[in-house]
Write a structure and sequence with these properties.
Organism: Roseateles violae
Number of strands: 25
Protein name: Pitrilysin family protein
Keywords: Signal
Family: Belongs to the peptidase M16 family.
Distance between the termini: 60 Å
Helix content: 40-55%
CATH superfamily of one domain: Metalloenzyme, LuxS/M16 peptidase-like
């Protein structure tokens, strides 16, 4: 659902504590958002330069950060016939270099400055480019953005174009062709929109069209759309407006305006007869998709259909979830959305069926619910739940200056008013149950929809489009200029005075029963996040019972001594909160996000599900069916399969982390209420738990609340002081494992090895070293495989450093026909990291990327809670996060080099490749890493005969 803001006067009035400081009318200098008890407004200033460039300033001094959010008002709606995917390809090219910033350097400069949230995106109606920098880098950010907009065309050449064509085509393979239901989603829009409509093709485009783009096309698109009179920059954060205006005039004012942008005139589309399609895909579970044309963004009916989507599909309280997932147990999941856009919106319902269940039966039940909603208005309670959810989501969007800036830009383009929030609120204030019902009756009829039934079977893709060889250098005469140059643009601006670097401090206290409470006060917005974290993760699974920790965590919300599963879901929805429970590697977490006014109620629900679950047999059966279906879904995803196989190969069959987090069929079938209760009693205990809370709540408010809700919780009698130690890791002797996915256009890779623990004294050096190796977009591995070779959409490395176990992994997907060369390049970068220390420039960049970015990485309650929860799980000192800046600052080239030599051992790396065996096995054999084994999707070795396939191929080749 498109993000919108909703608040009734009564709801806002109830947020009495909205005062400090970011929502304070009496303190306008603190934040950009104002609430006066009856309305919500974003304070901004908008101006236009002489060349037509729009600037919107949104002051927000909560954190020493500035978000730079540049929208170019062009997207697929502006593409010419036969050039689908062009707008998105152009987005990639904007990062490929400009006249004064060499190719690949902009991202490195942002890293070195401590930038966060650096990326771009394209939707049907616009393309945006964004990052957030420390407040002392205001001029640097404007220098980068102005050079991208005004001088990219000076630098783009055939080499950059060819490289990004490869990257984008890899993105298409990964996100559309190698993803379950990806081709179904694409077919849905092709059925909804007629040929020639700009929304008909996927934003990513087709291989043929992407590959057909010429350099002349790129230059023409830039001349037409990438001009200052077709762009808007929002600055949101901690800056001086007078200085910002002066600098924007300096950097953007000289850019030459283009001709008026050609208007997009498209007639509204309306189906008059139902369209039905049957599509097969390489999937385990069938899916039903229904879609309708609906009113464009902000047009009458758009808001009503947002609410209708919530009534039908708003989580566990939605009508379709209750009917299809909970009551009938026909569906694995339900998603309903109103996808709003400028030329017309799409209302979509997607239902993934449980194994063996009928899509026809599911469709009949969906139609019955739609008919009921069209004929009889929803209850006032259902409408209020929708409003509460949208309000909480809206305020959450305002936590980050980056998402705040993007919201302002969205209002500016879609409504013509950056401050449209008031009118947006008014739309929702006017909604009644009757108006929701009327919108459903008018818009969601059977005669006006597309229905797709996707079932398991062959994946039919378009004919392969060859990937041309990468040119080695540009031809003469490829470059041109749109804007006059100036010598001062060639010099990178100096940073201003650096702000004091500090992180939010967690204050600890303990209850008498041993429960640790970690409190991080974070006033500003009336929001609070919390997590009850327990040493009850996958590592606590008993021998022979994989998946038990996750099963137990999932069952917590399925009924307590005083509430049924549906009552829990409804009460959470009533207050617009989010409540979840899950088990990770070393801990289980029950997480809550809510408005401040509803925090006490939300925390009482969290406490109830944690302390009073009943594990009713009927609910166990429902959850068992869901988890068995999820196990089937897991086998659809090549990346997930690579992860499962890698874990088993790394830890061994006897280790609890060696199995899938879901377990296996035998273990899931064996679980009963008694086993779940026994695990809960042994592991859900106050002396092995911490309650972490961050947000607009004081210790004086939190302490008595925690005591009231958790004070009576007792450690079970006879419980051991600590869980027994897990068995040792037993990695496989094989160095290369292959899982066959016939016809896959990509190979999913997981390259893994044992790693250090969180308390390793070299942890900071390991983190900085990994940033250079594979942790950043600008890392050596990703740059080589993506930006130099065009093999992938992205490959990254990471350390999972826990309390009792640690691992290292490199993950990503590469084009099938270059799997062997990609691995060879990857290992070459690893060897280079171990051969010589980083030079001073690289060390400073990757260290600063970790150090100076810290304020931008702790800008939401959810992230703060998650960080302190992990800190507790890993057994790190209470002040670890506060001391993290000085630990990172102390990393040297020598300490990072030592970390590479000690913690990245090429000989220990286990390579897992999931892809088309016929294509990739010869490449892997040519690469030469041995021993090589064939595995199934669960990581089990195949029969010996199957594992002789490579030897048979050897013999055939010799003959």
């Amino acid at each position: 659902m498109r993000f919108q803001l909703l608040a009734l006067a009564a709801t806002l009035a109830s947020l009495g504590a909205i005062a400090p400081p970011a929502l304070a009318a009496e303190a306008p200098q603190a934040g950009a958002v104002v609430a006066d008890g009856a309305s919500l407004a974003i304070r901004y200033e908008k101006l236009k330069l002489a060349n037509g460039f729009e600037l919107i300033l949104v002051e927000d001094h909560r954190l020493p950060l500035v978000a730079f959010n540049l929208w170019v008002h062009a997207g697929p709606r502006n593409e010419a016939a036969g050039q689908t995917g062009f707008a998105h390809l152009f987005e990639h090219l904007m990062f490929a270099g400009s006249k004064h910033i060499a190719r690949g350097q902009a991202d490195k400069i942002v890293d070195a400055a401590g930038g966060t949230d650096s990326n771009g995106s394209t939707n049907f109606d616009r393309t945006n480019y964004f990052f957030t920098l420390p407040a002392n880098q205001l001029e640097l950010g404007l220098w980068i953005k102005s050079d991208m907009l005004g001088y990219m065309i000076d630098e783009v050449d055939s080499v950059a174009l060819a490289n990004q064509q490869d990257v984008v085509r890899n993105e298409r393979r990964q996100t559309t062709e190698n993803r379950p239901y990806g081709i179904v989603d694409e077919a849905l829009y092709q059925a909804l929109f007629p040929p020639g409509h700009p929304y008909r093709a996927a934003v990513i485009g087709s291989h043929a069209d992407i590959q057909s783009i010429k350099l002349a096309d790129v230059k023409a698109f830039a001349r037409t759309y990438y001009r200052p009179n077709n762009a808007t920059l929002v600055l949101a954060g901690d800056f001086d407006p007078a200085q910002a205006k002066k600098l924007v005039e300096k950097y953007f004012g000289p850019l030459k305006a283009g001709a008026p942008v050609p208007p997009v005139d498209v007639a509204p589309v309306k189906l008059t007869a139902e369209k039905r399609l049957q599509i097969t895909d390489r999937i385990e579970l069938s899916r039903l998709s229904l879609a309708w044309h609906t009113p464009a963004v902000f047009k009458p009916g758009d808001a009503e259909l947002d609410v209708a989507a919530s009534v039908l599909g708003g989580g566990k309280s939605g009508r379709l979830y209750k009917k299809l997932v909970y009551e009938r147990q026909l569906a694995q999941s339900v998603q309903v959305s109103q996808q709003s856009a400028a030329l017309g919106s799409v209302f979509e319902i997607d239902v993934i069926a449980r194994p063996g269940k009928s899509l026809d039966e599911i469709e009949a039940l969906v139609d019955a619910e739609l008919k009921a909603l069209a004929e009889k208005p929803p209850t006032q309670e259902e409408v209020e739940r929708a409003r509460a959810a949208i309000l909480t989501s809206a305020l959450s969007q305002l936590e980050k200056v980056g998402s705040l800036a993007d919201l302002v830009n969205r209002y500016n383009q879609d409504a013509g008013d950056p401050g449209y929030i008031g009118q947006d609120l008014a739309r929702y204030q006017a909604i009644t149950p009757a108006s929701v019902s009327a919108a459903v009756a008018a818009q969601l009829g059977k005669q006006a929809r597309v229905v797709i039934q996707a079932t398991p079977g062959p994946k039919v893709l378009a004919a392969e489009v060859p990937t041309p060889p990468m040119p080695t250098k540009a031809a003469k005469g490829e470059r041109e200029a749109l804007n006059a140059d100036a010598a001062w643009r060639a010099k990178q601006p100096a940073a201003g005075k650096a702000p004091t670097l500090s992180l939010p401090e967690g204050r600890r206290f303990a209850l008498a029963n041993g429960l640790t409470v970690i409190h991080v006060p974070k006033p500003g917005l009336p929001l609070v996040s919390a997590a009850l974290v327990l040493r009850a993760g996958q590592a606590a699974n008993p021998p022979g019972k994989p998946g038990l920790a996750g099963f137990t965590a999932a069952m917590l919300q399925e009924g307590t001594r005083t509430r049924s599963a549906q009552q829990i879901a409804d009460e959470v929805a009533d207050i617009g909160a989010a409540l979840s429970s899950s088990a990770g590697r070393e801990d289980a977490r029950i997480e809550l996000a809510s408005l401040k006014t509803h925090f006490a109620k939300g925390l009482s629900l969290l406490a109830d599900v944690a302390l009073n679950p009943v594990f009713a047999p009927a609910e166990v059966e429902r959850q068992r069916a869901a988890r068995l279906a999820a196990l089937a879904q897991q086998r659809e995803e090549p990346e997930a399969v690579a992860g499962v196989v890698a874990a088993r190969a790394l830890y061994g069959d006897a280790h609890p982390l060696g199995a899938s987090a879901l377990g296996d069929e035998a273990a899931l079938q064996a679980v009963d209420s008694a086993a779940l209760r026994a695990f809960w009693q042994a592991n859900y205990r106050p002396d092995q738990a911490a309650l972490v809370v961050a947000g607009d709540v004081t210790e004086a408010e939190l302490r008595p609340l925690a005591e009231r809700l958790f004070g009576a919780w007792q450690r079970p009698e006879g419980a051991a002081a600590a869980a027994p130690a897990a068995p040792a890791m037993k990695p496989t002797a094989a160095r290369l494992l292959l899982v066959d996915k016939p016809g896959s256009p990509q190979t999913a890779l997981a390259v893994v090895a044992p790693g250090p623990l969180a308390r390793d004294p070299d942890a900071a050096s390991i983190k900085v070293m990994n940033a250079a190796l594979g942790g950043l977009f600008t890392s050596r591995i990703n740059q080589q495989l993506r930006e130099v070779k065009g093999y992938t959409y992205g490959v990254y490395s990471a350390y999972a450093m826990g309390r009792d176990s640690g691992s290292f992994a490199i993950r990503g997907s590469v084009r099938s026909d270059v799997t062997g060369p990609a691995l060879a390049d990857m290992f070459g970068q690893i060897q280079g990291m171990r051969t010589r220390p980083m030079d001073a420039e690289e060390l400073k960049r990757v260290r600063n990327a970790q150090l100076l970015s810290l304020p931008g990485l702790f800008d939401t309650n959810h992230v703060v809670v998650g960080s302190y929860a992990s800190n507790w799980t890993w057994g790190l000192p209470a002040d670890h996060l506060v001391k993290l800046p000085q630990q990172l600052a102390a990393v040297s080239a020598a300490s990072a080099f030592k970390a590479a030599q000690q913690h990245v051992d090429p000989a220990a790396l286990i390579v897992v490749a999931v892809g088309d065996q016929a294509q990739i096995l010869p490449q892997l054999k040519a690469w030469g890493r041995k021993p090589l084994e064939l595995r199934d999707a669960d990581g089990a070795p195949l029969a010996p005969a199957a594992n002789q396939a490579d030897k048979a191929a050897d013999r055939a080749a010799k003959r």
